[in-house]
Amino acid sequence: MVRSMTAFARQNADTEQGRFTWEIRSVNSRYLELHFRLPDDFRDLEPFLRDTLKKRLNRGKIEVFLRFHAANAAQGLSVNAALVEALNQAADQVHAVIGPGNALDALRILEWPGVLEGAAIDTKALQASALAAFEAALSELITAREREGESLAALIQQRCEECQALSIRADSLMPEAIAAQREHLQKKLDELLENPDTERLEQEIVLLAQKADIAEETDRLRTHIDEVQAILSRDEPIGRRLDFMMQELNREANTLSSKAIRTDLTRIAVDLKVLIEQMREQVQNIE
């Protein structure tokens, strides 16, 4: 299964204690990079989240966001009356020393640690709900990566077929190209030499034909293309393998271009390099 490294997933989960919203964003990267933004109450989940992602993903820059909105947060607050009374008595003692005019106001009292008390929270149940929602978000992300991966594989497959057709076309042009080159050289030598050495001429033409022969390059091109198509069918991370094959394809296309002895062969080499570059760009997004 071909997977893209580019995807996005969002999952909401409502519980009695509040609402979770998970967002997972994935973009291409040479390695697996994990980044988390979690509320303070859920930071201890990070090691588990990290292990889960490492087991199910292989490459990509992954950003994980969690937002939690507590249900009826304001209704769950209560005032620690005993602490407020103690603070007030302490303030009276201070006033007796420094004089009036520095009384504590209500807001400053509420800001004092421990004055406001929240309703008791079942942390274990809350974290279990959060993890269940995360699993759903991760499954959605993987499905999106696979869906886009299928599209990338189809594009690469199409360009492989076009490269195959171009390599066959190049092979079919070679006999005519060699014959034309032979005729061209013969005319040049006939003009320069009154009595040309036909044996030596034949040897030079054979050497030229060998140098201009592209059969080896086109054979390797087709072999590499077959390997790319085989890699696309593997059920494993294939991005790095495909990236290497793009380098090899480009190497053969460059050699073919350097050997081209006619403009139509040069155009084929250029078209091949364009197709290979298009595949290479797509491969950068594959896991």
Describe the structure.
This protein has 287 residues and is an alpha+beta fold. The chain has three domains: 7-71 and 124-146, Imidazole glycerol phosphate dehydratase, domain 1 (Ribosomal Protein S5, domain 2, 2-Layer Sandwich), CATH 3.30.230.40; 78-117, no CATH class; 148-283, Up-down Bundle (Butyryl-CoA Dehydrogenase, subunit A, domain 3). The protein has eight helices and six strands. It has a four-stranded mixed beta sheet, with helices on one face. Strands 5-6 form a two-stranded antiparallel sheet. It is rod-shaped, with a radius of gyration of 36 Å. The model has no long low-confidence stretch (mean pLDDT 83).
How far apart are the termini? 10 Å
Q: What is the topology, as strand order, of the major beta sheet? A: 1-2-4-3
Beta percentage is: 5-15%
* Count of helical regions: 8
The third-level CATH topology of the largest domain is: Butyryl-CoA Dehydrogenase, subunit A, domain 3
- The global form is rod-shaped
Helix content: 55-70%
Mean pLDDT: 83
**Rg computed from alpha carbons, rounded to a whole number of angstroms:** 36 Å
Query: From N to C, what is the helix and strand string?
Result: EEEHEEHHEHHHHH
CATH architecture assignment name of the largest domain: Up-down Bundle
What's the β-strand tally? 6
How many separate domains make up the residues?
3
Question: Structural class per helix/strand content?
Answer: alpha+beta
User: Which residue ranges are poorly predicted, with pLDDT under 50 across at least 5 consecutive positions?
Assistant: none
Largest sheet report: 4 strands, mixed
CATH class of the largest domain reads Mainly Alpha
